[in-house]
Please model this.
Amino acid sequence: MRRIELAPRPDWERTIKQSGLIYSRSLRDDGSAVEYWNDGAAYVFTLPEVEALEKQTEELHRMCREAARYMASGELGHLGLTPQAFEFAQWSLEQDEPDVYARFDLAYAGDGSPAKMLEYNADTPTGLIEASLTQWFWLQDRIKSGALPADTDQWNGLHEALVERWRVLLHRSLSEGEGGRLFVAHSDADIYGEDWDTVAYMRDLAGEAGWEHTGIEMKDIGWHHGARQFVGVPEPWGSSRSVNALPGDAPGTQYPVIRNLFKLYPWEDVVSGDDRVVGDQEFGSLLIAGRGLFGRWFEPAWKMFLSNKLLLVALWRLYPDHPNLLPAYADGPNGMTDYVVKPVFGREGDGIRVHRADGSVTTNGQEYRREGTGRERVWQQYHELPDFPGSNGSNHPVLGSWVVSDEAFGVGIRESDGPITDYFCRFAPNIIES
Model:
């Protein structure tokens, strides 16, 4: 893998918004603007390199599924969850509830050495639109302008894979008598629009697969006390694929019963009982008490195992010295002098501390808002992200390798100035050289 630089496309800010990437610009605490999309750089793979990385991704995914079973055995305790939430995740795994997608974060030096797994975002992965759409349209523009050869390809089959996954899930839902309607939920606590935009794209994908789809905010998901079911907001009576609806409070209205829900919302928040969004405090207890009675929630509850940083410890216990893993422990650095301390529920680099042998400690200055019940931490060996210096200085990339239906289907690359990939990283597209 190598990094190249190109002149940014004219009017690229408008172009990326047309692809759905409306959250490129953000502000630092000092008020300075930061662009997430990097139109003037790209990472170049060879085809054999992509094939090798796909194989490593799929092997890691298989290992993670095995590690989830290990975690479900209780060998690592309750993983920062309440006992009830842990048992709920156990039950979901035993049922083998279907999932949709996930994203590995991998460190890759680009020199043929094995990629190293940093973590697995298997519950609420974002970065989907830029990985699936924005970089694909970037490639088409570059080919059209002659900046890249016409036979240039990209490691990106996400859109087609997700449509096919939703088609499979639709057929399953219909065969189980659960109808063909999918509710797609996000939280309005997201102030940048990324969550809203991601679920809007997921609605498009599901619609292309044949689902009837309805957007809803998490706080608007209701509970029908009479029917003891989750319901959507009241609507005019009648929906072509709603197999289950309850009379609304007003004549001619109905409460659609939610039998399929995609939520971009962390499970540890859903089951916590003290969530940040007003109105959903009861979700966890109702789901746990009525497990199996509320249709399908995507991602399924067993993803609580894979989104938990203790997954890294489970993997290292099951597969010590595996070339794609880094040593990880639940009780301290165990002799490591360069290591990273991670909260079990952390996201976007929050709460991560990088400890170096010289005594220095680096953080992004943010603490993740939710602790595990026992303030659990993971100590993972520090792995230096490679530097692909460019005209603006250092660029430390992390590969976001996507998994759909147990297969690898594309990559999104975020590069950062320093060792922590945080909110202010940059997304650079990829190509496979012809």
